[in-house]
From TrEMBL:
This is Methylthioribulose-1-phosphate dehydratase. Gene3D superfamilies: Class II aldolase/adducin N-terminal domain (3.40.225.10). Keywords: Amino-acid biosynthesis, Lyase, Metal-binding, Methionine biosynthesis, Zinc. It comes from Sphingobium fuliginis (strain ATCC 27551). Belongs to the aldolase class II family. MtnB subfamily. Its EC number is 4.2.1.109. Catalyzes the dehydration of methylthioribulose-1-phosphate (MTRu-1-P) into 2,3-diketo-5-methylthiopentyl-1-phosphate (DK-MTP-1-P). Pathway: Amino-acid biosynthesis; L-methionine biosynthesis via salvage pathway; L-methionine from S-methyl-5-thio-alpha-D-ribose 1-phosphate: step 2/6. Its cofactor is Zn(2+). Zn(2+) binds at residues 98, 100. Binds 1 zinc ion per subunit. Residues 13-202 form the Class II aldolase/adducin N-terminal domain. It catalyses: 5-(methylsulfanyl)-D-ribulose 1-phosphate = 5-methylsulfanyl-2,3-dioxopentyl phosphate + H2O. HAMAP family: Salvage_MtnB.
Length: 218
């Protein structure tokens, strides 16, 4: 059995339960999404590729090293290197969740050519570290999708490191959200909050008649 993180007596079980909750919220269609936790020995417990994230059990997790190399037999998530990147750039990250929502996917495609999703004026902005008021603006980094994970990770690394205060979430256009936190509960709260904000932003874009007309933050 893998080593355990202090807040997760059984990390696979806790991640599987989170998967069921995310699936119930429509954030894990088909086999979309992947989840991981940093274990006490520094290795990463992550979902295997192709598993349905609403029906996970312990057999659908495996350990990888910090560079994504498999420790256990089998094929880890196709997006393992993005999890490795997050743990590398944020030493406080304890769990990473990746979701696919309709609103986020469509919004990110509507924002063609933009490198961020700016969210402003929402009470829920207070989910982000250091934000204490709705009178704030937080930009989620937004990058184009790619099937080349080393290239995608290399693209994201300097973007994440350049942030004055690290925003624990980013978006891959037409693909999905990555969000993380020091604990699994915190990561789940971040993913829920971001998906809520993305859904609000998409509704506002629709009300205004389309992203191309927007000069204001969404
Ligand atoms: C059918 S979803 C397409 C792949 C994807 O984006 C995803 O999140 C799941 O990939 P994994 O290899 O982690 O199952
Ligand atoms: Zn994905």
């Amino acid at each position: 059995m893998p080593a355990t993180v202090p807040d997760l007596p059984d990390p696979a079980d806790a991640l599987a339960k989170a998967g069921r909750r995310l699936d119930a919220r429509g954030l894990a269609p088909a086999t979309a999404g992947n989840y991981s936790a940093r274990l006490a020995d520094g290795t990463i417990l992550i979902t295997r590729s192709g598993a349905h994230k609403g029906r996970l059990d312990a057999a659908q997790f495996m350990r990888v090293a910090t560079d994504g190399t498999a420790i256990d037999a089998g094929r880890s998530s196709a997006e393992t290197l993005l999890h490795c990147l997050i743990y590398a750039v944020d030493p406080a990250a304890g769990a990473v969740l990746h979701t696919h929502s309709v609103a986020g996917t469509v919004l990110s495609r509507a924002l063609a050519g933009r490198d961020g999703i700016e969210l402003a004026g929402y009470e829920l902005l207070k989910i982000f570290p250091g934000v204490a008021t709705h009178e704030a603006s937080v930009t989620l980094p937004l990058v184009d999708n790619s099937q080349d994970m080393p290239a995608l990770a290399a693209l994201l690394r300097p973007i994440l490191l350049a942030q004055e205060r690290l925003v624990p979430a980013f978006y891959i256009r037409g693909h999905g959200l990555y969000a993380w936190g020091p604990t699994l509960d915190a990561a789940e709260a971040m993913v829920e909050g971001c998906e809520f904000l993305l859904a609000c932003a998409w509704e506002e874009v629709k009300l205004r008649g389309g992203a191309d007309d927007q000069s204001d933050p969404i």
